[in-house]
Amino acid sequence: xxxxxxxxxxxxxxxxxxxxxxFFPEPHVWGKLKWIAGGAVGMQPMDWLDLLFHGFPFxxxxxxxxxxxxxxxx
Length: 74
Known about the structure:
Blueprint: H1 2-5, H2 8-19, H3 28-37, H4 45-73
Helix pairs in contact: 2-4, 3-4
Protein name: RND transporter
Organism: Bizionia hallyeonensis
Keywords: Membrane, Transmembrane, Transmembrane helix
C-alpha cells in the first residue's frame, strides 16, 4: 500500500482522472473550490464529502511532492 502512495506517476494519473472528473462543463473539484471561495452558501454535507473525494488525489500528490523535496534536502 505504501508503494502505491509513493508512486508519482500513479498519483498524477489519479489527479487527472478521479480528481478532475467529470470534466465538462468544468472540472468538478474546481467548481467546488469556486463555491467555497464564494462563501460556501448552500453547501450540504454531501458536497463537502464530494470535495474530499475528488480532492484526495491532489492531497496525496502534494504529500508526495513535499516528501520528495524534504528528503532531497536531507
